[in-house]
């Protein structure tokens, strides 16, 4: 459904008490979307997979040809597959449309 689309994820808040808020925007592409289970498998463009926290809530921006959607969720799994870094992102409460006036310029 969204395979191949550009995604940006950014930490919204750390879940653990001693967690550090990371405001880095991570660029990804959708590898697979599991609609029934609300999981998105993302290919992380950055090399450092360990910088993605498993103890944080993230905001995810999905760029389609006609709109930008966002959701919040958590990273359930991160792993290397061959030469690709994969993130398994669990969507909470579905996607919402980003209004035109609130969109920021996307860097690809």
Could you characterize what this model shows?
The protein is an all-beta fold. It has a domain at 1-59 and 73-84. The chain has no helices and 6 strands. Strands 1-2-3-6-5-4 form a 6-stranded antiparallel β-barrel. A hairpin with a 4-residue loop joins strand 2 (25-34) and strand 3 (39-44). It is globular. The relative contact order is 0.25.
Concise overview:
By secondary structure, this protein is an all-beta fold. The chain is 0% helix and 56% strand. It has strands spanning 6-14, 25-34, 39-44, 56-63, 68-81, 84-97.
What key attributes describe this structure?
single chain, mainly beta, 6 strands, about 55% strand, globular
Main sheet summary: 6 strands, antiparallel, barrel
- Helix-and-strand structural type: mainly beta
Care to count the β-strands?
Answer: 6
Number of helical segments with 4 or more residues: 0
Give the rounded overall mean pLDDT.
88
Looking at the structure, what is the overall shape? globular
Low-confidence stretches: none
Outline the fold blueprint.
Elements: E1 6-14, E2 25-34, E3 39-44, E4 56-63, E5 68-81, E6 84-97
Antiparallel strand pairs: 1-2, 1-4, 2-3, 3-6, 4-5, 5-6
């Amino acid at each position: 459904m969204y395979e191949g689309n550009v995604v940006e994820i950014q930490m919204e808040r750390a879940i653990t008490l001693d967690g550090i808020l990371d405001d880095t925007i991570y660029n990804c592409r959708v590898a697979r979307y599991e609609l029934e289970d609300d999981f998105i498998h993302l290919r992380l463009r950055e090399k450092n997979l360990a910088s993605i926290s498993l103890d944080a809530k993230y905001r995810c921006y999905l760029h389609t040809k006609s709109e930008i959607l966002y959701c919040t969720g958590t990273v359930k799994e991160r792993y290397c597959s061959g030469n690709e870094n994969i993130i398994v992102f669990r969507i909470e409460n579905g996607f919402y449309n980003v209004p035109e006036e609130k969109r920021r310029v996307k860097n690809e």
